[in-house]
Amino acid sequence: MATAFLHYRVPVAWLQADREKTQQHISQRVQALLSDAHQEAVQLGDQLQKDRISFTKLLSKTHYPTFVYKNGRLVYWSDHTVIPDLDLPPTSHSISTIRNSYGTFVVMPHQVSEYRIYTYIPLQIDYGTTKDFLSSGLQKSIFGKADVRLVLENPGQLPQVKTSEGEFLFAVDYGSGRADVGFDQIQLVLLILGTIFFVWFSISWSRYFLRRQRYTAGIVLLLVLLVGFRLALLFLNLPFLIVETELFDPRLYAASFWSPSVGDLALNVLLLVTVAWAASYLFHKNEVLNTFKAYPPKKSKVALGITMLVFFVLLAVLFRFYYGIYHNSPLALDINQSIEMERYKLVMYTLMFLHTVALSLFAYKLASVANVLLRRLSEWWPYQLLLGIAVVLTVLALVFDMRWIPVLLIGTVFWAIVLLAAQHRQAISLPYRTYLFLFLIIAVSSLTGAASLYTHFQSELLAYKQKFAFDLMQGNDVLAEYLLEEDVAVRVSEDVLIQTKMKGPYVDAFFIKRKISRQFLPDYFDKYEANILLFDSQGRTLESADTTAATLDELRKKYATAHNKTEYDNLYLVNDPARPHTRFYLKLIEVPLGTQLYGTIVLQLSLKELLPNSLVPELLAGQQHQQPFQADILSYGIYEKGRLTYSEGEFDYATNFDRSELGKSELYRQGSTEEGFHHLGVKTDSGPTVIITTNKYGAREVLSNFSFLFLFFTGCLIVVALLYVLLNRERLRDFQPNFSTKIQLFLNFGILLPLMLVSIVTASLVTGSYKKDLLSSYEKKGEAIQDHLSRPTTLEVMPDRNRLLRRVASIAALSEADVSLYDRNGRLMVTSQPLIFESGLLSKLINPNAFAAISERQALRVLLDEHAGNLNFNALYLPLRPDNDPEKLIGFIGIPFFDSERQLDLKLIELITTTMNIFTVMFIVFIILTFFASRALTVPLRMLADKLKRTSLTGKNEMLAYEGADEIGMLVNEYNRMLLTLEQNKVELAMREKEAAWREMARQVAHEIKNPLTPMKLSLQYLQKAIAEKNPNTEQMINKISHTLITQINILSDIATSFSNFTSMPEPKAELMDLGAALHKAVDLHTNPASVRTKLRIPEEPVMVMADEALLVRTFNNLLLNAIQAVPAERKPLIRIELKVNGSSEALVSIADNGSGIPAEIQHKVFIPNFSTKYTGSGIGLAVAKKGIENAGGRIWFVTEEGEGTTFYIALPLASP
């Protein structure tokens, strides 16, 4: 409610105060910058008074864009990206704000003798277009995030920014926008707090049910509340409705109503992870696996098939998730195209990891279900079922959509591995199975992501190639013609400012051209090179006094022919016979200059080179987001009647393309791959066939994306594991891996860490070598251009600008580089790429650092790091000297390498992807090898452990056979020597133990025999006395005493029988058995809900031990029977049976009752033979149990509390895998 109030009912006073605060911040920032700039100008003036102009000395003292004029002539500049009017220097003598075609600046003048220093502080940059590398707008260092418009006039009603002396600079118009420190952030904070409180409330309400063991109700309630809240955010478009953050901006990612932004996608993925956790939680609490354990074989087969299909569905959802991200986001997520890790790419990859976490939770439960179901099925039947499902789904994919084939293959391999591991689960310990399963899921998700990206790439590539062929073969551009006639021509001819500028006497041709190209030509014409010519009413050019310049009549005569005419007047489409598939438009626009007088503006539009290696700078490309496949070399060839008529690009169609491919239909559907190239054929309506060729995108690229995702997910997994350990340190202390796991971990880290270090060092060394080679190639190319321009043939044409321009353009075309020529004063003369200067990205002044190095320090060349907009690039500057005479400097050569960063990135991409591929393959191989290596290394130890378990003093002990002379061999030899010693001492030791045991047994039996003998003796003595005294009731006494004697004799007989049974008990037979299954057997015998309540907690996974199964079942039966009988008659017996695994070495069974407990005075006698608290008991059961359990290497004990009950514990060592 508070958020809605602030959003829809913001008090005017609050908003006004907020804007005033923002205006104060802006004023303070501007005044601070002016103060620094003034101090810098004063220091610069002092330097100018002391010494002559020296760029080298002055550049170290200037940090703001500074321009120094002497007698109206520019003599120094510190920045070549800020663009002043070079011909008309500022005339203001006080601080003022100016606006030109390139932006808005605060200019601070400073006079020092004959020098006038102007320091520029940029307020707003205006490139006139929006490209990837161009960011027009207010300077964030001054205005922050404020949405304002700058007003240079002095309106009294708007907030004003002034100097510290009170001079007006500019006004700030907020319009309908918000201030930088407005209420948007407050609303966002309130929304976040409300979200946190709602989630906390949902969790608290859910826990209320969970504490009462109503698990399903609690989880369903939690999910309903969270899903409802998520739907409310979607329908209300929150939080983007409140504050336009990039995270929730649809321009960065927009898929559908459910995922309109990256932030919404993140919320959806978090909700998916919550659902996966909830399903896993319910699966565990409701003991779903116990239901599947009771399935008969027929029902198990159906359930297994459904389980497999569910995973295929989950994998298909994951595939669509990846495809949606690649398709709906402009981010370059293909590691083969971009290695730049910007923050939103990291967000996307993190969301992929979270989706993988959700998949792992679902997949683990599905694998657990399959593991249970396989116990009732034959060995080969699951594989037959999997093969049948895979075949059916493959047929469906071939019929409807072949893009699902990789998904089916990945899912089939996953289930094959799961089935194989389940059938051999005894060979792998549970912790290591979980460890391998996590990496299996990561591999499955990474492979799915790589396959999805490959599918998306192929789809986009085919669409792009088809559009490329359509644009190439299209005779005319219908939309361009319509826009030129109905929009551009009308607006240009009616523009009053253009009319005024063309009337003279001074014709500002540059202003007119810039206004037309920036305001009247829409973005659609970005794919055309635009050249604008101006003519007066007599048809004479208004731009140059050059007599060789073509007149309007000459242009009409050359181009305005019937062959070139279009359906629109004064619009001509010119075809070049040398390049039959290029497009060149000529549009004549009449501009009224007075009564019956018309000037003419000629628009010459030529289609830009469509190849990706065009010389058009990347930052001026017409696309907002460059398609990834355009980084490849693209070539095309045109065939007519099977004969090559024209080709463009590096691919040699005459030599390397098989013309027989033209007759194959596959070439026109999906394209064909041959020798590392992908060809797609497109048939046109006019007859010719276009073959478009790009580099093949194949297995190496798929492996690179798989490797990157695999390593990224693995890194995220390690981070999550470390956080878990930090938050649960007690779990780390409880972690006790076995020897096999230690070997695997040590081998993994011992091999992978050096491999990682070697990869990093190699990458850094090769990167340095790449940079060095790249710079060396730039210098060689620059020297070649310098050699051409220094020849007399070039120097002769320097006074003629048009001839010089043609000369520079031809050299630039031959060298495949952009070339700019500056005069000796550092001003631009001609350039092969005028667009970069006309658009305002660079001024027509040379880089001052290059001027200082070459002109003052006599450098032979200088390579500088420069930037235009947001694009960083290298620029090489060389001196222009006639015949390379070092004493003469007539100009400078500037060669910007706009693709330098891209070229280095391509080299680094190749290096990094290769390193990742090797690292990932080695990582996976080592995981597999360490598994087998650990098993091979621990086989002797497992064999030794098995023999030690079987070693006894009564049975026959076999020696171990091991041929190795290593540490294990030493251990085996010591074991064999121990057996020899044991055999020697076994007889003596057995006799001593038997004697001790018999003495103890004799003492116990004697004690037990004395108990009935005493009443027998007393009875007989009493009878003798009665007979001697001739008691009248002697006969009755004889009868009573005889019954007493018979009872006591029976007791003696039972003692003898129990003693005989105990001494003749067979030796236990140790065998591999499932402790949980034995416990189930014993519990089933005592399950009677009417008389006894039992609560059973047994793990889903089998718990394997080495013991005598029959003895353990008898032991459990005895303990259960004792527990039931120990409960008083007034209580209903409640028996709790639990089996759990302590660490990785021990299984613990507990059987607890709610009986009367065991009195303290007899607790030490519980396991003594023939001792019993029951009148009819023999007292031998617990003694037998104790002997059998200890024989298996285990322990048995109890904990009791009188009046509350007793718990018996049995601990047995786990069997080695």
Describe the structure.
This protein is an alpha+beta fold and 1217 residues long. It folds into seven domains: 2-173, no CATH class; 184-431, no CATH class; 474-632; 633-696, Profilin-like (3-Layer(aba) Sandwich), CATH 3.40.1840; 790-898, PAS domain (Beta-Lactamase); 967-1062, no CATH class; 1067-1213, Heat Shock Protein 90 (2-Layer Sandwich). Helices cover 52% and strands 16% of the residues. It is built from 32 helices and 30 strands. The strands form seven sheets. Strands 1, 2, 3, 4, 5 and 6 form a six-stranded antiparallel β-sheet that branches. 28% of the residues are buried. GO terms for molecular function: ATP binding; phosphorelay sensor kinase activity. It is found in: Membrane. It is an enzyme of class 2 (transferase).
Number of domains: 7
Low-confidence stretches: 4-10, 610-617, 621-632
For the residues shown, what is the average pLDDT?
A: 80
Question: What is the tally of beta strands?
Answer: 30
Amino-to-carboxy terminus distance:
61 Å
Biggest sheet record: 6 strands, antiparallel
| Percent in strands | 15-25%
Q: Which structural class best describes the helix and strand composition? A: alpha+beta
Annotation field: number of helices:
32
**Level of helix content?**
40-55%
Radius of gyration: 45 Å
Give the overall shape, derived from the CA principal axes. Answer: elongated
